[in-house]
């Protein structure tokens, strides 16, 4: 049985990097397409449905932030951002806009490959998911773990990005347990948190917004000062 390779699109204005990554990812079993800017990406997206985007922040014309913002208006396709800036603000802004992960330049292609595999693992739903575990109820919400959609009390559905879905999954698997930031990072991303990394705070903020809450009045995901976060409600698996 043959498996269709995942389609990746690399958006970078450096032709050497585009060629290097396309060749490297192709040798590791991926179908790698390239675009030099936002306009070229939009042309590709008009005829392709990629499994993941890899987008450099610094691009001519529309930058990576603009691309991320526009993509998130219509799609939850996983997105990894590349940044040459050492400023944490760039990384935080990318995550706030809906990026699933980020990687600083220069980088080892093997590390990017590991990030790609991790993001695809998080965002692809196994076809063997038992049907009886599909819906999970918590508070006034339900999560459809097959379609990766939140369902509100009125039955309205809204899709989650890969990063938001995986973080919510971690909370649902550990209800009413205080989880540290480092613990949440490792459980949701499959690797230890970098020193002083605060990206989990950004993702928790995004997830709260999806649940109609804010940090000051959150009843579902509560901050435990000096310890981390807790999903402060019971979780029920629905038949």
TrEMBL record:
Residue stretches making up the Response regulatory domain: 7-120
Positions of the OmpR/PhoB-type domain: 133-233
DNA-binding region: 133-233
A Pfam short name: Response_reg
Modification 4-aspartylphosphate occurs at: 56
Top-level lineage group: Bacteria
Cited InterPro entries: CheY-like_superfamily, OmpR/PhoB-type_DNA-bd, Sig_transdc_resp-reg_C-effctor, Sig_transdc_resp-reg_receiver, WalR-like, WH-like_DNA-bd_sf
Keyword set, alphabetical order: DNA-binding, Phosphoprotein, Transcription, Transcription regulation, Two-component regulatory system
PANTHER family reported for this sequence: DNA-BINDING DUAL TRANSCRIPTIONAL REGULATOR OMPR, REGULATOR OF RPOS
Protein name: Response regulator
Organism: Halomonas flagellata
């Amino acid at each position: 049985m043959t498996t269709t390779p995942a389609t990746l699109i690399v958006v970078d204005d450096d032709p050497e990097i585009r060629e290097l990554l396309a060749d490297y990812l192709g040798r590791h079993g991926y179908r790698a397409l390239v675009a030099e800017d936002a306009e070229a990406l939009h042309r590709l997206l008009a005829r392709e449905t990629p499994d993941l985007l890899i987008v450099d922040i610094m691009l001519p014309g529309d930058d990576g932030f603009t691309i991320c913002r526009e993509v998130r208006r219509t799609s939850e396709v996983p997105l990894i951002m590349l940044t040459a800036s050492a400023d944490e603000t760039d990384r935080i802004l990318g995550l706030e806009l809906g990026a699933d992960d980020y990687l600083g330049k220069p980088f080892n292609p093997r590390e990017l490959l590991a990030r790609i595999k991790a993001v695809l693992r998080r965002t692809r739903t196994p076809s063997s998911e038992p049907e009886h575990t599909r819906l999970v109820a918590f508070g006034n919400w339900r999560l459809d773990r097959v379609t990766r959609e939140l369902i509100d009390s009125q039955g309205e559905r809204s899709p989650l990005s890969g990063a938001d879905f995986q973080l919510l999954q971690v909370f649902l698997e550990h209800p009413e347990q205080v989880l540290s930031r480092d613990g949440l990072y490792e459980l949701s991303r499959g690797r230890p948190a970098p020193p002083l990394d605060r990206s989990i705070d950004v993702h928790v903020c995004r997830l709260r917004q999806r649940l109609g809450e804010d940090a000051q009045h959150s009843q579902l995901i509560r901050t435990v000062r000096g310890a981390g976060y807790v999903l402060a409600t019971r979780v029920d698996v629905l038949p």
